[in-house]
UniProtKB/TrEMBL annotation:
It comes from Dyadobacter luticola. The chain crosses the membrane at residues 27-45, 51-74, 86-105, 111-131, 152-175, 187-206, 242-261, 281-302, 309-329, 411-437, 458-477, 483-501. It comes from the Bacteria. This is MHS family MFS transporter. The keyword Transcription regulation does not apply.
């Protein structure tokens, strides 16, 4: 390697490090909300809201995704007019401020429905900010990268989304273990939101020292900056065709694979399979740890064989494998059935008495901890609600399973299956930044690539946890019914991408 090549490599390494840190922190800020959806739902809504609290919280979570395309338009336009650096510096400030303020919002018991409304507003600001962040970071790195290695260098940016989730899970588990479950559920859940302001401050300092993209600087010096990026992106037929191809043939399918493998998997294990809070997060942490390097592997491989079939193969494997994988999750955690033949020990019952909120009905909860002879443990609660305002009360009895822990082969197998889902994420997501930036000319690249990316990820992908959970709650549905949404979207995207994306587009050279 001569001195010139060495300087280029050092420069791109610094660009990647500076861009990735800020993007990592933004993803962390965005995803701690989803990782704490169950606890946040208990804080934002009435205590007797039941399952609707989780669905409403997931709806607020999804709202942040829905507005991401609008953020892509607003900040994409700014990025193409004033530059990449200052635009995604602004998005970082907005994201960090919103996350910090979520940690300060009082609970429902203090301010009523003002609590979820305020959180919704802040989630919308987060979504707008993230809509402008990714396109800027990916474009910035790609415009520094040498021809023939864009897949490799931009794949480092791709790792930040999953590493942001990894960081959020790690901070949450650490905080919960230090404070204890009760204190964490009461007020400790706010800490991951509040400490993010320190990370944002460091990232802002680093980004202030970054230089503008050389490709954009050259364009600006030549007076070739687009006067109206939105008009050029979406009113020119040839470019708009590429926007639609990027959305329906790539990012739509990539988005549902991403959010099924990393968010719905966690939600399903915790809320449907009733895994212990820490257990579900440890499983995802191990899976992410082992799978993350493959973002770079597939990104680099796409430089040699093209982006198209790596991404489409990831979609197809998701379509084929999701239902068998999630059926295994159900079978491996079906302790209600297992205890008929495998029950080993049962603890002394713990009885709690109280009243149903806003009613006179008495409530008695009897909880026992059980252990099966294969080492699995869980808690079984019998809840008896006795009406107090009727002449002949008929008690309502409910049995609830919670805090399931796996052991041995089943624990390892669940990690492997979640790892496989994250591996599919790396296949569809690792090459896609290079794929998108190579589709569009420099003067409208930020705007053109950001919109299909954030519609595909923010709308189609971000709605996976909400829609899948909602569908599974319908009368006559099964726990696996929610999977038809990501399977259907990934199938459609695979078909469109296989027909219309070709290697000439796939290996396009940026101007």
């Amino acid at each position: 390697m001569n001195s010139a090549e060495k300087n280029v490599t050092q420069n791109i390494t610094q660009v990647i490090a500076a861009s990735s840190l800020g993007t990592l922190i933004e993803w962390y800020d965005f995803y701690i909300f989803g990782s704490l959806a169950v606890i946040i739902g208990q804080q934002l809504f009435p205590s007797d809201a039941g399952a609707s609290a989780l669905i409403n919280t997931l709806a607020i979570f999804a709202a942040g995704f829905i507005v991401r395309p609008f953020g892509a338009l607003v900040f994409g336009r700014l990025g193409d007019l004033i530059g990449r650096k200052y635009t995604f510096l602004l998005t970082l400030v907005l994201m960090g401020g919103s996350t910090f303020l979520i940690g300060l919002i009082p609970s429902y018991s203090s301010i009523g429905y003002a609590a979820p409304i305020l959180v919704l507003i802040l989630r919308l600001v987060q979504g707008l900010a993230l809509g402008g962040e990714y396109g800027g970071a990916a474009t910035y790195v790609a415009e520094h990268a040498p021809v023939g290695r864009r897949g490799f260098f931009t794949s480092w940016i791709q790792t930040t989304a999953t590493l942001g989730l990894f960081l959020s899970l790690g901070v949450i588990v650490l905080t919960k273990n230090l404070l204890g479950a009760k204190a964490f559920a009461d007020w400790g859940w706010r800490i991951p939101f509040l400490v993010s302001i320190l990370l944002v401050g460091v990232s802002i300092y680093i980004r202030m020292k970054m230089h503008e993209s050389p490709v954009f600087t050259k364009l600006k010096s030549e007076g070739k900056i687009s006067a109206n990026p939105l008009k050029e992106s979406f009113q020119k037929r040839a470019n708009f065709k590429m926007v639609l191809l990027a959305l329906f043939g790539a990012t739509m399918g990539q988005g549902v694979i991403w959010y099924t493998g990393q968010f719905y998997a966690q939600s399903f294990l915790e809320n449907t399979c009733k895994l212990d809070f820490n257990e579900s997060r440890y499983i995802l942490l191990w899976a992410i740890l082992f799978a993350t390097p493959f973002f770079v592997v597939f990104g680099s491989w796409s430089d040699r064989v093209g982006r198209k079939w790596i991404m489409l193969t990831g979609m197809l494997l998701g379509v084929v494998c999701y239902r068998p994988i999630y059926q295994y999750f159900l079978d491996a955690t079906n302790v209600k059935e297992m205890q008929k033949t495998m029950l080993q020990t049962t603890s002394e019952p713990v009885v709690e008495r109280g009243l149903v909120k806003d009613k006179l009905d008495s409530l008695v909860t009897t909880t026992v901890s059980k252990t099966l002879n294969n080492g699995m443990t869980f808690k079984e609660s019998t809840i008896v609600i006795t009406p107090e305002d009727v002449l002949e009360p008929i008690p309502e009895v409910q049995t609830v399973i919670k805090d399931v822990t796996l052991t041995g082969q089943s624990y390892i197998m669940v990690i492997v299956l979640v790892f496989f889902q994250v591996l599919l994420v790396t296949m569809v997501y690792g090459p896609i930044a290079a794929f998108l930036v190579e589709l569009f000319p420099t003067q409208i690249r930020y705007t053109s690539m950001s919109l299909p990316y954030h519609i595909g990820n923010g709308v189609f992908g971000g709605l996976v946890p909400f829609i899948a959970t909602l569908v599974a709650s319908f009368a006559g549905s099964t726990p696996l019914s929610g999977l038809w949404y990501p399977i259907g979207i990934a199938t459609l995207s695979f078909i469109i991408g296989a027909i219309y994306i070709d290697n000439k587009v796939d290996n396009n050279v940026m101007d």
